[in-house]
Write a structure and sequence with these properties.
With 276 residues, this protein is α+β, with helices and mostly antiparallel strands. The chain contains eight helices and twelve strands. The termini are far apart.
Length: 276
C-alpha cells in the first residue's frame, strides 16, 4: 500500500514492460498489504489506481499479509466457467470507467449470435498482431448453430476455449467479452467483434465471397492424392453431425456414386473448378 504507486509510475526503457502493471493486469485477486502504514485517504487513492488497471479483480486489504488461505488458493482463475458460477458479475458490462492511459480494461456486450469461423479468424488475427499488448481476454460467446455457450480465455497469444453450459430455451442469446491490455484500440475491438455477428448483411457478404454457386461443377479432394468430381448442391451448408457452430461453404454431390459430402473450407486445396 505504501510503495505500489511508485512502482506503477516507474518509467521503463522503450520496449521494456512495467512488471508491476503486467502483474496487476493478470491478477485474479489483489492483496493490498501493509495498510497500517498509510491513511484511509491513501488507501482509497491506491485502490482507485489499482482498479484503473484491473477493474475486475477484487481487492483485499490486509496487514502483515494476514489473509484467509481460501481467498488466494484454488480460485480457479483460468477456469472461466467456474469463475462465472462463483461470481455472476464477473463479466458485468453495466458501463465503462476511466482507466490508466496505457493499460486499460474494456467490456463488450452484444446481443445475438456470431459466426464461429468469423470469430476464430478475428481472434487469431487479433492475438497474432496485438497479442503482446493484450494481457488478458475472456468471455462468453453466443455462437450461431450452437446450443451451448462458447467460454474462452486468452493470456497474450495463448488461447483456451470450449463449449460449456447450454442456453436456456427462453434465454436471450448475447455475448460478453472482457479485455485487459496496453494501448487497447477500443473502437477497433468493438468493430472487429461486431463484424463477426450474424446479420442479413454479413450473411450476404459471406455468400457473395464464395467462389462457386449451386450447380457449379467442381472437384473435391477426397484422399491424400485423390480428387473426385461433383456438383455443388448447397452453399453455407450445415447438418447435425457437424461440430457446434460449424458451417460448410459447400455441400457437393459426387458424380461417381452420388454421395453427398461437404467442403469444410472454401480453399483451392480442398475444392476447385472441375477440369475438362
Amino acid at each position: 500500500a505504501k510503495h505500489i504507486e511508485q512502482h506503477l509510475d516507474e518509467e521503463k526503457p522503450e520496449g521494456v514492460e512495467n512488471e508491476s502493471i503486467e502483474q496487476l493486469a493478470f491478477a485474479d485477486r489483489v492483496l493490498l498489504n501493509k495498510t497500517d502504514l498509510v491513511t484511509e485517504a491513501d488507501l482509497d487513492r491506491v485502490e482507485a489506481r489499482l482498479r484503473a488497471v484491473n477493474q475486475f479483480a477484487p481487492i483485499q486489504r490486509c496487514c502483515q499479509s494476514k489473509v484467509s488461505v481460501e481467498y488466494v488458493l484454488d480460485v480457479g482463475g483460468f477456469d472461466l466457467k467456474r469463475t462465472l458460477e462463483k461470481e455472476p458479475d464477473f463479466l458485468n458490462t453495466d458501463g465503462e470507467h476511466q482507466h490508466d492511459a496505457t493499460v486499460s480494461s474494456l467490456s463488450l456486450k452484444q446481443e445475438g449470435t456470431v459466426y464461429m469461423d468469423d470469430l476464430q479468424n478475428w481472434v487469431q488475427d487479433l492475438l497474432t498482431t496485438k497479442g503482446a499488448d493484450i494481457y488478458r481476454m475472456k468471455g462468453v460467446i453466443a455462437v450461431e448453430h450452437a446450443d451451448k455457450r462458447f467460454v474462452y480465455q486468452a493470456v497474450h497469444m495463448i488461447f483456451q476455449g470450449s463449449f460449456e453450459e447450454e442456453w436456456g430455451a427462453d434465454e436471450k442469446r448475447e455475448s460478453k467479452l472482457v479485455f485487459i491490455g496496453k494501448n487497447l484500440d477500443k473502437e477497433g475491438l468493438k468493430a472487429g467483434f461486431q463484424a463477426c455477428c450474424v446479420s442479413e448483411e454479413r450473411t450476404a457478404k459471406k455468400l457473395k465471397s464464395l467462389r462457386f454457386g449451386v450447380g457449379d461443377a467442381v472437384e473435391c479432394k477426397t484422399g491424400p492424392r485423390e480428387w473426385s468430381k461433383g456438383k455443388v448442391v448447397a452453399t453455407m451448408y450445415r447438418d447435425d453431425s457437424m461440430d457446434p457452430g460449424m458451417v460448410a461453404p459447400y455441400q457437393v454431390k459426387l458424380d461417381e456414386d452420388g454421395d453427398l459430402i461437404y467442403a469444410p473450407k472454401d480453399d483451392e486445396g480442398l475444392i476447385r473448378k472441375a477440369t475438362a
